[in-house]
Amino acid sequence: MTGYGRGEAQSDTLDIIVEVKAVNNKFLDTNIRMPKELSALEDRLRKLMAAALDRGKVDMYVTVDWLKGVPRRVAVDESLARAYHEALVALAIDLGLEPDVGVARLASFPDVINLKDVPPDLEGVWALLEDAAGSSLRALVVMRESEGEALAKDIERRLGTVSEHLAEVEKLLPEGTPAYREKLMKRLEEIRLTVDEARFAQEVALMAERCDCTEETVRLRSHIGQFEGMLKAEGPIGRKMDFLVQEMNRETNTIGSKSQDVRITGLVLELKSEIEKIREQIQNIE
User: Whole-prediction pTM value?
Assistant: First the structure.
């Protein structure tokens, strides 16, 4: 299911914003974008995401704002400063000048003084990041649950339609054998062919056996009941539904291939249409 969540946590020195977006996917695929200096915390974030979600392509964006500026320290390259000093003194002597090399002048030379970023306190940052990430994931889950409720209602309605079509198929099935018997008898009369009654009855019985869809209709109705039960279940059910809808489609195809009744063929097409719509919807379910 799709969804979006946002979380924020703040301290005296740090403000962290976490945004998370999810789209449909058969498996859990996580992607995290965060400042390089916090990359050591990425695995912890992935574990949080895996604990909260089971399916979906999920992108998480971490924004960090250092409220009092990025922590830095001044680094002095003393050996380089001494080398500059010695070179300047030697130059002054060679030129017959009075050496006049002050600290300020030395500090102005390249690479003598540099600013270095201070590594952040990862555990302190994690306390805030965990809070912000948790809030964003909870918001995402709430949005997905809302979408899930709407999907469940739609699927339940479509299951009702499937059940109605199946009931019509079940009513028509008993008419298949008498209809075939009558059709075969009429054909024999047209060609004026006399057939042994026992052989005729055997042929009708064989056709009735080949066209019998009782097992398929029973299994299909069982699948509908299981599907309805899943809609009320807790926890991830998307993959189970995916498997079950394949079985429903298989039973429907078998009914269509066995039946010789054009009315049942029409109902099978309606069944396949509704089952396909259900299959499309469950791709959005975790």
Answer: 0.61
Taking CA atoms, 191 is separated from 21, 138, 181, 188, 204, in Å, by: 71, 75, 16, 5, 18
Residue 16 main-chain phi, psi, to 5 deg: -120, 130
Under DSSP, the state recorded for 7 is E
- The confidence score (pLDDT) of residue 167 equals 92
CB atoms < 10 A from the CB of 118, how many?
Answer: 11
Please give the C-alpha separations between residue 8 and each of 41, 60, 174, 251, in angstroms, as whole numbers: 17, 13, 65, 50
Distance separating alpha carbons of residues 172 and 166, to the nearest angstrom: 10
86 half-sphere exposure, CB direction, 13 A CA radius: 6
Token duo for residue 247: 């079985």
What does residue 265 show for φ and ψ, rounded to 5 degrees?
A: -60, -40
Classified as helix, coil or strand, 144 is: helix
Is 109 strand, coil or helix?
coil
> What is residue 211's predicted lDDT score, i.e. its pLDDT?
66
Cβ atoms within 10 A of the Cβ of 133, count? Answer: 27
End-to-end CA distance of the chain: 7
- C-alpha angle with apex 30: 137 to 234, nearest 5 degrees? 50
What residues form DSSP beta bridges with 17? 8, 63
pLDDT, averaged per 10 consecutive residues of the chain (286 residues), comes to: 90 92 87 92 94 90 84 81 85 80 83 77 91 95 85 90 91 63 54 57 57 82 90 78 90 84 87 91 75
What's residue 223's pLDDT?
92
- DSSP class per residue in 216-259: HHHHHHHHHHHHHHHHT--S--HHHHHHHHHHHHHHHHHHHHH-
Predicted pLDDT at 270: 93
